[in-house]
Amino acid sequence: MHRTFACLALGLVVCLSSLSASARADVRSGSVQDPLDKQPTVPSLNPTPAVTEVTAAAVTYNQETGTVAASVSFNQRVDGERLRAGLSLNGPQACAAHPTTAAAAVPRLQLWLNSDPDVTPNATAELAGFAGAVVAATQVSADQRTISATFTHPAFAARDWRCVGGSNNEADSDEFAFPFAGYEPKELTPASATTALKAELTRRYGPGWEGPGSWTACPRVEIVEDGYTENAVGPQGLCEFRFRIGNRWRHGSVLVSEEQGDVVIASFSSATFAKPMRACRALRTLRAQGVFQRRLRAGGFVGCQDNSASMIRDLHRLKPGVRRVGFHGTNRAGFEDAVTFRCVLRARTGGRRTATCGNALGDRFVYRFRLA
Q1: What mean pLDDT is reported for the chain?
Q2: Angle 119-124-127 from CA coordinates, rounded to 5°
Q3: Which of 23, 93, 114, 343 is most buried by a 10 A CB count?
Q4: d(CA 175, CA 298)
Q5: Where residue 371 falls among pLDDT bands split at 50, 70, 90?
Q6: Distance between CA 283 and CA 292 in Å, rounded?
Q7: How far is the C-alpha of 290 from the C-alpha of 313, rounded, in Å?
Q8: CATH 3.10.450.630 domain span(s) along the chain
Q9: End-to-end distance of the chain based on CA atoms, in angstroms?
Q10: What CA–CA distance (Å, rounded) separates 265 from 144?
Q11: Is the Cβ–Cβ distance between 36 and 122 less than 8 Å?
Q12: Domain 190-273, what fold?
C-alpha cells in the first residue's frame, strides 16, 4: 500500500500516528524532538535575533513500495529566508552503538529538503552507488516552520535502513539523529548480555531451564571493548550459567558480542555433572612440599583433577581457620559464586588437616592431608 504523508500543519506526531496500529511490518518510522541548543548564550546589551534551528524531524520508510517521507521542523518562520535540511538513512553497521569503519552493506540514502521563496521548492534523494537523483516537491506548512517531501523509487525498496541522521546544513550546523522504532542500537552491558544469554538458553532447552537453582552471570568486568577474538567487530563479554536437568546439572559459558547494533551469542559451550560428592582415587604424595596422605571427596563440578595449579593445593600453605580458595585461570572475575569456595580448615594431631569447602551454588569438596 502506498502512503503519502504531508506532515505540515498537522505536525510531526499527528502525521506519524496516521499509520494505523495494524501497519505493515515493512513500514519503519522514527522521529526526534531536537532541543534549542544553538541560540546565543553570551549576554548582550542589544536585541539578539533568534537563530533558526531544527526542533523536530521525522521519517517514514515503506520497504515494500520504496517510499520515503521526511519532515523537518524549525523554531521560527521562514520570513523570506530559505530553510534547508539534509537527512541520511543508514544501514545496521552505521546505526550500531559502536559503528565500525567497514563499508556498510546497505547503501546510504541522502535526502535534501529545500524551501526557497524565490523558486519552486524542490527536494532530492540520492542513493549511494547509483547515478542520478529522485526529485520531489518540497511542501511548506502554513506557518512556514515545517518542510517535507515524499520520494518513491523501486531502487529504494527492500533496504535495511535502521536510523536517520541529519542537520540544517548551515555554517553552525544543528545536527540530529534517531533510530527507526524497534531498531534502537543495543549496547553490550551486563543486562543486555544476560537477556541474550537467557534467550539462547530458552531456544536450546525450552523455558523450563529457568527453574529452582538456575544461575546466570554476565559481569561487567568481563566486557572488553576490543573483544576477545581476532575477528571481533565490537565489544565482547563472557557469561556463565547453570541449571538443573533431572538429577544432573548443566554448567556452561558463552561469548557475547555487540554486532551491528545487536547483542548476539558468538560462541557457546557447556557440560553436565552430578552434584553429589564422590571419593576420588588417592592423590600422589608431594614429598618435596612435605604433604602426605592426600584424600579428596568432591562433587562433579569440582572434579578429582590434581595438578600444580589446582585450588586444593592452595590449602597446603594456609593456616587453620576460615579460608577462601578458588579455581585458577583467567577470566574468573565476576563468577565468584561458582569459582570461589569458603573453606573451614581444621588442624588435627600429627599434622593432619581437614578442609570442608563449598561455594555459593552448593558445590562442595572435602580435602584431607598431612603435613610433615
Answers
A1: 88
A2: 165
A3: 343
A4: 62
A5: very high
A6: 9
A7: 12
A8: 190-273
A9: 87
A10: 49
A11: no
A12: Nuclear Transport Factor 2; Chain: A, (3.10.450)
